[in-house]
Write a structure and sequence with these properties.
This protein is mostly helical. The chain has three helices and no strands.
């Protein structure tokens, strides 16, 4: 299932779009991400999930009811960005919220 999701042409299109947005709106961050990913690929022999993305990882939450514990990603690159893309029909009266605790 993970391989099918990763190889999905539709998901690849979304990943490529996110990459383009990052390159357009955050060019310095994009360059840092891109350079770091190339360094890891060349020195560690690892392969990126997508050849159309500057991001080294991706997460997909699947299912009708998904939740995560309140957390901070303290090991992330401080001036970096994290792109979130949501699909499906969402009823804001029932849930589907992203909560950024630090912003209040």
């Amino acid at each position: 299932m993970i391989r099918a999701l990763r190889n999905s042409p539709d998901l690849r299109r979304v990943v490529g779009f996110q990459d383009s947005l990052t390159r357009l709106w955050f060019p310095k961050t994009y360059a840092r991400y891109h350079d770091a990913l190339k360094f890891v690929e060349e020195t560690c022999g690892l392969e990126a999930n997508y050849n159309c993305s500057c991001f080294s990882s991706a997460a997909a939450n699947l299912g009708p009811q998904v939740q995560t514990f309140r957390h901070k990603d303290v090991m992330n690159y401080a001036p970096g960005v994290c792109l979130v893309t949501c699909f499906g029909n969402h009823d804001p009266a029932k849930g589907g919220h992203i909560i950024l605790w630090e912003l209040g």
